[in-house]
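Re: that chain you flagged

S.,

Sorry for the slow reply, it's been a week of failed gels. I finally had a moment to sit down with the sequence you sent. For the record, here it is as I used it:
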Amino acid sequence: MALDAVKEFRSVTAGGVAGIVSGRQVMIGKPAFLRAEKIERLEPLEVMAGKLQEEGKTAMFVAVDGQPVGVIAVADPIKDTTAQAIRELHALGLCVAMLTGDNRRTAAAVAKKLGIDAVEAEVEPTDRANYIKQRRSDGEHVAMAGDGINDAPALSEADVGIAMGTGTDIAMQSAGITLVKGDLRGIAKAIRLSRATLRNIRQNLFFAFIYNALGIPVAAGLLYPFFGVLLSPIIAGAAMSLSSVSVIANALRLRNVRL
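Prediction finished late last night. Pasting the structure tokens below so you have them in one place:
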């Protein structure tokens, strides 16, 4: 296919693109974008687009020289592992929400297929961060997963930002976690690992303090008036060493955690 050069190209964020191709004005984007450019009579195309959107496809409207001429449907195939990843997140007690700039029909079709709990469709890039900020102000802990430039503000706003290694550099720089392979099942693994790590830290704090909590009063002579018992320096030194060994041994158990 021979592609002609595009002149006077312009892009409208979350709207569409326009330019002059072979002397003709071409516009591609959302209905609202075309109507803002004075393109009318989009209703027949919207009926056609509605059927495509119900199949989970994204519909883009095309106008040439001020007249609507057709619809381009783009389907982003759902990865085979995505449904499993969402099931694992549900099993961990998480609520899964989808934020997308796609049409509501398209978003609802995808959400229904995957079992997603909540859907926010036709969301502008700047509104994603505001959505997360609102959820956090409601007292919820929010993790955001994304891979695009438009996701960067939301990734920074979330309690935990999760970027895809297959995405943009700015998304990875804005996130605290990067899934190298871009597999969403890695989110569930990261959560299981973090919970196991925090549990291990609490156990280590117990091991670190229990020896001192028991040993210091005995060393100070607490039991001497009653039983004539004093803590030998040798035993005290062994107890301190055993405390460190207990902490290290317990931390090493993380290697056996099943993710």
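What I noticed first: Residues 6-74 form a domain with the Calcium-transporting ATPase, cytoplasmic domain N fold (CATH 3.40.1110.10).

Talk soon,
D.
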